[in-house]
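## retry 2 of 3
previous attempt timed out at serialization; input unchanged, resubmitting
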Amino acid sequence: MIKVEAVVIRERVETVIDAVEAETGHVGVTVVDAIGHGRQRGITHEYRGRIFESRFLPKAVLTFVVRDDVADEVVEAILDAARSGNKSGDGIVWTTAVANVTHNRTGRSLEEVEVG
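## retry succeeded, writing output
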């Protein structure tokens, strides 16, 4: 199993989840609100003549645990759907190998459930 994690702008969360489901059939996801910044180091904006700096920007962390054979497809779906057209700040995606993924209710491994 592979854990695919993505930091995306909040406005793209539903778009990313829908794209992953449509392109790969995978439906399980965990979404956590987050704040942070990358290379852009936040933004500066003006309101009523005053300049404000927002160092940390609102983001969301999406976590998918998927079969090895669909991990690359999930990453591609996320990358395509997360692009906002902005110069920077669209987030990042990474993968991690995971073992022993078990459903709490049934005690069955995720591999068993996914396959049959």
